Amino acid sequence: ISICRDLPNIEVITFSVNGISDLEPLHQCQNLSELYLRKNNITSLDELFYLKTLPRLRVLWLAENPCCGPDHHRYRMTVLRNLPSLQKLDNQAVTEEELSQALVDGVEITAPPARRSVENGWAECTASSAAGSAAEPDCELLSCSLEETNKTQEELDMKPVPRDKYFSFSPQETDCSCKKRNNVLSAILLLMKELDAEGLEVIQQTVARRLQAFQKKELQEE
Q: What PROSITE patterns does this protein map onto (predicted)?
């Protein structure tokens, strides 16, 4: 979900059933109001640390994650203590009584969770990493995304994305704009299958306008 770092204005995110364990990429989504994370791999409620900075978050669905544990009351109280602006948690309305009780029974989260050096099979890339070692996991990730993207293209009766168009940088390159473009493309195509006919028409009209603008710009430059 690293693409969320490039989507600060997004308002609703649905990531249910995706094997997600790290919520750090969400902390910059300042306009986020609804977040659906049901049935993922979030093991610690310390991940809520990254959601505490989101002023507009009103709906959170976190049920069926390992972090919920066997004690439902303690789990709910901890979430509400750290996210008191929530209006609905796990599809259940939040009451004033619960918010008051959360100050007593909930656990205050004051620090982010500890990270392992390798998580979910991917080496974590740090700013001090060498260009080659930092880029390799990204290339593998984008390669997987291309397969998933083309599967989605098939479902939408669209032509597959050529590998040279999608995966256009070598393992040694660190061109962030290229990675960002590919990640955005993958996310858009994957989300398109969630749209109905009306939504797809809006997308079609928007793309047509954008293409016209690009073509006009190219003609002016020539």
A: LRR
